[in-house]
Amino acid sequence: MPANLVVGAQWGDEGKAKVIDYLSKDTDIIVRYQGGANAGHTVVVGGKKYIFHLVPSGIIYDNTTCVIGNGVVLDPEYFLKECADLETHGFRVKDKVLISDSCHILLPYHRLIDEAREAGSSPERKIGTTKKGIGMCYADKMLRNGVRAGDLLDKDNLKRKLGHILEVKNQELVKYYDLEPVNLNEMYDFLLDFADKMGKNIVNTVYYLNSELEKGKRVLLEGAQGTGLDIDFGTYPYVTSSNPTTGGALAGSGVSFRYLQDVIGITKAYATRVGEGPFPSEILGEAGDVLRKLGGEYGSTTGRPRRCGWFDVQMIKHAVTVNGINSLVLTKIDVLSHYDSIPVVVGYEYKGKKLDFFPSQGLEDVKPLFAEFKGWKDDISGINSFSKLPTLCQSYIKSLQDLVKTKIGIVSTGPDRDHTIIMD
Prior knowledge:
Helix content is 31%, strand content 21%. With 424 residues, it is α/β, with parallel strands linked by helices. InterPro entries: Adenylosuccin_syn_GTP-bd, Adenylosuccinate_synth_dom1, Adenylosuccinate_synth_dom2, Adenylosuccinate_synth_dom3, Adenylosuccinate_synthetase, P-loop_NTPase.
């Protein structure tokens, strides 16, 4: 059986969790393959809202097993709190979640360094990080100076390894950031407490996932953020610290590429991004505030207001190329019912020349080229049949599909699981 992938085609917050929830009913195993507790996925079922940060959102189905892959940086405090919150809603989290033994552990000092770096950055160099230590943990991973979940299963070796790590880390904390050094015994006890609570859930998930796929199990890969925030293919340096794209899904889960079948890209019918960085289709001023209020565009993790803009064809075509997307899901189209006319960015000009691609450099200097589409001005919230949509709304969807040259397989008309149109 195949593995399928859900990937964000914009700057995150596209509505991936709803799509993952929708697909999870036909899935055996859901894998989170990158990112950390800086991500927030929101699922609405029967009018009740659930917000996920580290635990895959497919946990709400009884039939699923959830895996936190080796590409994730796992914050024990956030993870245990999230498990406790979900268990109050009746979900058996700890019985159904496996943690990769190669998954890196985010430690309290990562957050402290993140806060110190962002506070000390000049305005033009601020990234807009959530200050949750994600980038600092990934940095230690690449420096080979990190703690992995599997280390927690060998107490003696853990203490020796932690001692070596803190010799280096404490010099950084004290001399560079003017922070207090980390106490070895306190950090060791912190990790042992997590190991006591979750040690039985730490396994070799690469072996587990490929073995289950070989047996015929169905796997769904879910990431955080989106293509525009990819460390390699996004708007660097205003990006996340990992690869939300297809390559990151394979590297962050260990699932063999031969199992990957469908890559499903998620995009809003408009665009948003959080934090700093170029945003060619951004709507400034009061008009941007209107769209933000209509769409409820505030971060589910931080509550930060999202910057809002119009649908950007060039960006989605970039996401299709980088990820190998073979089907798109269009979300939040109901939000656009407010408008008489809907602009869409159909291309860019850079220094007087039309670009045929999404540039790796100079995006802040491109001039967006717009086309206008008539709005439908009818409330379409909750409609779950394409034929019941207003003709102008149907036309808008078909036009986007033609412009990005990729089929739109699903359209979401509201937050609830049932507010979904299957196009095929």
